[in-house]
Amino acid sequence: MTTSPVKILGLSIRGARNLLIGSLVVNFLIVGAVFGLGMREDGPKRPSGGAFGEISDLVAEERRERVAAIMAERSKLRRELRRARTDDWREIAEIIGATNFDPQAVSIMLHDYSDAHNERRKAAYAPVVEALSIMTYQERSAVAEKTRAFVEWRMTRRNR
């Protein structure tokens, strides 16, 4: 009685072993690439929250809820600012792409956009001033340090 060779997934034992080794090598390469991309140092790390984000974490417990509510309002205003800015640029793009190009209309739109954008930004920073005004000197100092770190990070990113 002859025994037939053992087959795994239609491959001989040697072929199955080589397939397993090849699969492991590919998996290790993928895992290494993912970790390598995640671990690479590409300049200083961005401070969490940006210039004014997460400042409620720097405030004493008795004021934290109020500061968090103020900053949540700022986040809402900033979302509205981004939405309005996007809408404005869509409108500007329509004027630029019109068949009858009107340079004066584009100039007026850009001027109006600039004015509106500046007003919206002022409104978005008003809650920051309100939150800072209820903080103690030590809390504001911590916010100032966080803001300095963010500015330094941004300058190193832009000067590359």
Characterize the structure shown.
This protein has 160 residues and is mainly α. Helices cover 72% and strands 0% of the residues. The chain has four helices and no strands. The longest helix is centred in the middle third of the chain and has 36 residues, at 61-96. The protein is flat. The mean pLDDT is 81.
Count of helical stretches? 4
Low-confidence stretches: none
Q: What is the terminal separation in angstroms?
A: 75 Å
Radius of gyration: 29 Å
Helix and strand pattern = HHHH
Multimeric status of the protein: single chain
What's the helical proportion of residues? over 70%
Q: What class would the helix/strand composition place it in? A: mainly alpha
Shape: flat
| Total beta-strand segments | 0
β-strand percent reads under 5%
Could you tell me the mean pLDDT?
A: 81
Largest sheet: none
